[in-house]
Every structure is written in C-alpha cells, then in structure tokens.
Amino acid sequence: MGKRKQQPATPLPKLRGVGIAVLIGLALLALLFVIPTVDKQDQPLAPVLPPGPVINPNAAQSGDIVSINYVLQLEDGTLVDANGDIAKKAGLKTYSQGPFQFKLGKSQKVKGFDEAIIGMLPGDQKIVTINPSEPITRVLINKTKHLFKNQPISRIHFYKIDAFKKVFNKPPIVNDVVRDRSLSYNLQVLNYSSKTVAVQALVKEGDTIQVPGLPWESKVLAVYDRMITVRHNPKNDTTITSFLGDAKVTVGRSDYFIHYTANVGQLLNFSTPIAGEDSSFVAPHLFKVTDVSDEAITIEREDNLAEKKLTLEVTLVELTKK
Asked: Alpha helices, DSSP H only, in 59-217?
C-alpha cells in the first residue's frame, strides 16, 4: 500500500481587534476567581459606644439657684460644715440658719461639693464621698532646734492692707512712722499695694529689742537696709512658751538649743508658706500634730478641707432653673 499523503496544517485565523478585546475581558474575569476576597464577616466592626447620660432638663444644673440641707464630715465622723440646727448644735461659727441657698457652681465650698448636686431633683437625698483636691500640707519639725546667739533677722515686716488699717487705725502713708504694740520698736512705711504694706524696723546699733516669738531681750549689733544682726541673751535651763507649748532652753558659749515637746492630736497655729498664697505675707494656719518621734514632730494642716477626704450628705430642698 502506498503512503497516505499528509495534509498541510490549517493555519489559525488572524485575530482582529475585537477578538483581542474579548480575550482580555475573559482573562480579567478569570482573575476575579483567583484574587482572594475578604468576607464582610472578617472585617473589624466599629465599636459600639454606650449611650451618654440622659440629662433630665428639670434636674439641677450649673447656674441654677438651689437650696439645700447638708452635712459635711471628715472620715472619722467629725462634723466640719453644715446648716441649720445641726450646725448650731455643733458650735460652728458661720453657717446658714435655714437651707443653704446659692448659685450652683458658685458655692465657694470644696471642689466636688457643687458637682455632687448636679442632676438632683427637689426632694432628692444623696450621700457622696468627696476626695481631696489638694495635696496634704505636712511640716516636719526637729525636736531640738540649734541656734546661734548672733543671728541675722529681717528688718522688713509685711502686713495685709486690712490688717494694717486695723492695727494702726489708719491707711498706710509712705515714710509714716507707726507703732505696733506687739513690737518693741517703731516701724516706718516703705511702700504698699492694694494687698500688702511693707514696713521697716527703726532700730540702731546698740539698741535692746525683743525679737517676736522670743521671751528674752536681744542686742542690736548691726543694721543694714533689709537685715539686722542681733545677739540673743537666753538664760540656761529655762522653760519658754513656744508655738508647740512649753520648751526647754539650754545655752552654750556661742549658741543655744530649744527642745520642743508635743502630743499627737495637739492643735496649734503655725506660720508657713502655703502654695497659692501671697508669699510676702505668711499667715498662721491651724495645724494638728500627727506624729512624734525621738527626732521630729510631724504636723499637718487642719483648716483646709480641700486636703481632706469628706462625706457629704445633702438634700435638695428647692430648685430654681436658670
């Protein structure tokens, strides 16, 4: 048998522009099945926030006029502020005889007092804890104070403007000479502002004066613009009255020692710079002895409720919306 004659291969038709476009479209369609898709369930959901507090338009808000009955106590139950008969029985010096009325946000009480009343309705009662809004003012006093007989002291004294008018019964006048009965020397007005008056001690070398707070006489050794150098003359083994009570004095050749004693719970007036107050005038504040060791006495400020943890019991008696 003879060999079959091989047929020539049929040539592929040439692709025209439309055919190419169709192929590209099919390729893109295929890619849709290859590229991974993200399921909506795999996408992170936006957090659902809790609804904000619903404010009753009839409740007490800042700026409203409120009348309240209240009791403010320390952690140990000591009553420190109140109104009405409770305040009277507690012996408080200043209080509202009836309900305490004020503009909410302007009570001038401790921080947290007004905030506790916001949201209350007439007749509502509440007991809340008010945490301290200021750090504790704590002072550590050495039980033994070492001093030198020769001591520089300030020649300049400061008075609050109201205190000056009360002590001297007249307003300050620059260069005016005045006398404070609690001092053993005259004073001259240097300058003054709307808040304070600066005066200087009128003393000279050789004068004998009594330094405020000390029971003995001291001799003026030198006088400068702002300072005076004095020599103290304490007697050995004597008892003096100090801001902490009785204190014993022992004397050396060029120095002397004051030995303080105190009891825990003791109240006293103590002058120390307080944050936020006029540094040119250091007024005394009420302090309480909180600890006594072999070396030191610890006192804490007692007359600043902003340093205390408090309990407020309050009843809203009346409310006038702003």
From this structure: 84-90, 113-117, 161-168
Q: Is the pLDDT reported for residue 231 higher than 90? A: yes
The kind and range of the H/E element at 80 are strand 79-82
Write the CA distances from 295 to 112, 141, 145, 187, 263, integer angstroms. Answer: 38, 9, 11, 38, 14
Q: Over the chain, what is the mean pLDDT? A: 87
Q: Which two tokens stand for residue 276?
A: 């936020």
CATH of domain 65-134+307-320: 3.10.50.40
Whether the model pTM is above 0.70? no
Report residue 171 as tokens. Answer: 């307003």
As a whole number, mean pLDDT of residues 41-51 equals 61
Confidence at residue 214, expressed as pLDDT on a 0 to 100 scale? 87
Q: In what order do the strands lie in the sheet with 296-301?
A: 138-142, 296-301, 284-292, 267-271
- Cα 5 to Cα 278: distance, rounded to the nearest angstrom: 122
Q: Whole-angstrom Cα distance, residue 254 to residue 203?
A: 23
**Residue-level pLDDT at 125:** 97
